[in-house]
Amino acid sequence: MKKTYLILTAGVLVALTSCTNDDTANDEPTPSVEQHAISFRSELGTRATETTNANLSSIRVSSFLGDQTLFSEVDFNRGDDSYFTSTPEYYWPGDNSTLSFVAYSPAAPGGTVSVKADSKTLTDFSPAQNIADQVDFITSSATGNKEENESAGVELVFDHRLSQININAKADNPAYVYKVTGIRIGQPVSKGSYDFDTNAWTLGSDKAIYEETYSTPVTLSATAQNIMGEEGNAILIPQTLTAWNPETDASNSSKGAYLSIKLQINTVAGAQVYPFPSEPNCVWAAIPIDTDWQPGKKYVYNLDLSNGAGFVDPNDPIPGTPVLGGPIKFTVDVKDWAPQTQDLPMKTSN
Predict the structure, then answer these.
(1) pLDDT digit string (tens) for 174-226?
(2) How distant is the alpha carbon of residue 345 from its chain centre?
């Protein structure tokens, strides 16, 4: 039976090696000239579920011959032999015509995908409210023809189109014991549309609060540690954040962006200083953020509570009140789907 192959590489360092793997060749023959089979090689340009070369199991591909659609949004699934195959199979035109390809994953990222010759969009996309259900969204495009790509395959290099958010925290202050039982990412834009041709996002006006709480407290130390809980990192729409202003808009009527941690602070002698004894329902401590989230970047916020613990969360009683001494310090380190660190001192004054 003739088959269409998507060959998945294990990473940049081993890109192209799948085409010559002896074991694979014994299991499935390389498409011959007579078969005219379209094949692909795939790699990521550098989880919630973070997509990697190792866990990419399915992609959805469309192909165009000029303004004609050769096939539309066909699923290619990875088999045990690491090849991706489709049903039905498609083959190269015999006249060496150039085909264009658009691919993405997952097949249902949220919102509405429409891939046509003249318009390729993801509209009304919203990240899942539950951080554990948020998914990575990757896309790729390429061109190819029978003569150049029938044997070697068309290389599809996927890029991440969302931003990944991670929160760490530390407290190097021997006078207090800091315990964290949750995180919030407050008021980023939560709906937008993506254009496959321009790789640009158009933001809506909806905003949301993404929250994760857990029953076993994380006790902070002088070394920053992950406080995201079991749900993992958030994956959200790229955007430039407008920060919450706790001094002029304590209740956050303008829906400015912030990070918040569910926090208890005791002295080493055992006295509780936060939540405030006079306001026992105040349990979240927040810090404004105004980061420019770029697609394909992982933002690692390192909250430093050593000299302050931020402000009472805008959703709690007496919002905007300094928790201890001042705003949380942070650094942000941005890399290609790797940490950009932002150290945030939780001091409320300079």
Answers:
(1) 999 999 999 999 999 999 999 999 999 999 999 999 999 999 999 999 999 99
(2) 25
pTM value is 0.82
* Distance from chain centroid for Cα 270: 40
CA-to-CA separations, 245 to 275, 283, 345, in angstroms, rounded: 21, 19, 16
* Domain ranges within the chain, ordered by starting residue: 5-160, 164-347
5-160 against 164-347: fold identical? yes
**164-347: CATH class:** mainly beta
Where is pLDDT greater, at 61 or 58? 61
Q: How far apart are CA 283 and CA 303, in angstroms?
A: 17
| Neighbouring residues of 95: CB distance < 8 A, sequence distance ≥ 6 | none
Confidence of residue 3 (pLDDT cuts 50, 70, 90): very low
Return the amino acid letter for 249: D
pLDDT of 143 above 70: yes
Closest CA to 303 of 264, 324, 329, 340: 329
Measured at the CA of 343, the angle between CA 341 and CA 345, to 5 degrees, comes to 165
Alpha helix segments (H runs only) across 61-210? 146-149
The answer to whether the peptide bond before residue 106 is cis (omega within 30 degrees of 0) is: yes
